[in-house]
Structures are given as structure tokens and as C-alpha cells.
Structure to design on (218 residues):
């Protein structure tokens, strides 16, 4: 009897999941498409520069409850057509790079491909979020070829350094464990930690640049 109040919500989630299965393949295809492009770019870069700019590639599909919650938060109709029309982060790819400059190199190589359409760019490296979060977010539209023909599917690509990824992952974990919101002193400490990590990222970039310059002939 205690579960009855949740029954309508569970039924709506199940109905949404069943309806979403009809379009899920296009988002999975878009993720594979972007991941393959990134792997090829990484391989090509390594041949010329003898190192890989990409440390790791991760992907995810937004969960049905998360999709529904985001639609409600925006005051939009909670349905699959509404999600497809309004949400650009159902499919996501995270690219972890070695250095700050690698982020912009990889982003430039990816976005200038002929069949890639850039929808939105948010640079949280140059303009960090108030909590200290740093990353480069790019929403791309990628062609996915289905039986009925090509469809363009949005994918959110997040590019960050190893250090940025370390901070973001742990910060998210800490906020998730907090009962309500993090105490002000903890938030301030996390912000300072993000600043410290950014300084280390810049130092590592300078060290890399010095070594690269010293290895050039002449």
C-alpha cells in the first residue's frame, strides 16, 4: 500500500521508456559516430606529433527519469517528441585530454568537418561556472544514416583535461552525497581547489611547451 502514490509516476516513466525505444537507436548511432571520429583524429594526430592528445573518451545516454525531470523543469511537455525537439544533451560524449591546448585542437578538428554542424559552444574554461567547474561544451548535429534515410542528431561533447575531469567527478560525488546543499565553507574550499587545479593545468601546459620547443631542430 505504501507504494501506491508512486505508481502513476512509475507508469509514466515506463511509458516514456517504451516510447523512447523507437528513437534510441539514432542517439546510440550518433554517439558511435562522434566516438569514431574522435578516435580517428587522435590516431592521425599521434602519427604527426608522436603523442595522443586524447587521454580517454567516455559516452552516456541521458536516463529516462533525467529526461523527464529536465522537461518538467523547463515547463515543457513530458513526451518523447518534446524531448527530441527540445533537448540537445540526450546523447553525450566526454573527451578527456592531456593538456588545455589539446582541448581546443581536438574541438577545432572535430567541428570543421564538412558534415558536422555546430549548434552551441559554451566555454567554461575561459569562463568557469561560479562553483569552479571548467570544461568546453559543444553541441553538434551529426548525420546518422537509418533505413529511412539520414537524420541529424544532436550530441553534447564535453572536453576537459585530466585535472578538470578529476575535480568535476569528485565535486559531483560530494554534492550528490550532501543531504541538501553543501555548506558554504565546503563550497568555498571546492572553488579554491578548482582554482588550484587550473593553475596546475597551466603549469603543465608550459612545461610541455618548453619541452616541445627544446626538441625542435635548429
Amino acid at each position: 500500500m505504501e507504494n501506491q502514490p508512486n505508481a502513476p509516476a512509475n507508469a509514466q516513466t515506463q511509458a516514456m521508456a517504451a516510447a523512447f525505444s523507437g528513437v534510441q537507436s539514432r542517439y546510440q548511432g550518433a554517439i558511435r559516430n562522434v566516438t569514431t571520429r574522435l578516435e580517428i583524429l587522435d590516431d592521425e594526430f599521434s602519427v604527426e606529433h608522436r603523442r595522443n592528445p586524447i587521454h580517454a573518451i567516455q559516452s552516456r545516454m541521458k536516463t529516462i527519469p533525467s529526461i523527464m525531470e529536465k522537461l518538467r523543469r523547463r515547463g515543457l511537455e513530458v513526451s518523447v517528441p518534446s524531448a527530441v525537439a527540445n533537448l540537445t544533451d540526450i546523447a553525450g560524449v566526454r573527451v578527456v585530454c592531456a593538456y588545455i591546448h589539446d582541448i581546443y585542437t581536438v574541438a577545432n578538428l572535430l567541428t570543421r568537418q564538412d558534415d558536422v554542424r555546430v549548434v552551441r559552444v559554451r566555454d567554461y574554461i575561459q569562463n568557469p561556472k561560479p562553483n569552479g567547474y571548467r570544461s568546453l561544451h559543444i553541441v553538434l548535429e551529426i548525420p546518422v544514416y537509418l533505413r529511412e534515410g539520414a537524420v541529424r542528431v544532436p550530441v553534447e561533447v564535453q572536453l576537459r583535461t585530466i585535472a578538470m575531469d578529476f575535480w568535476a567527478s569528485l565535486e559531483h560525488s560530494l554534492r550528490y552525497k550532501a543531504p541538501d546543499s553543501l555548506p558554504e565553507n565546503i563550497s568555498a574550499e571546492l572553488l579554491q581547489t578548482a582554482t588550484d587545479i587550473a593553475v596546475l593545468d597551466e603549469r603543465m601546459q608550459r612545461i610541455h611547451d618548453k619541452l616541445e620547443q627544446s626538441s625542435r631542430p635548429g
Observations:
- The chain has a mean pLDDT of 93.
- The longest strand covers residues 149-161.
- The domain at 4-162 is CATH 3.30.460.10 (Beta Polymerase; domain 2).
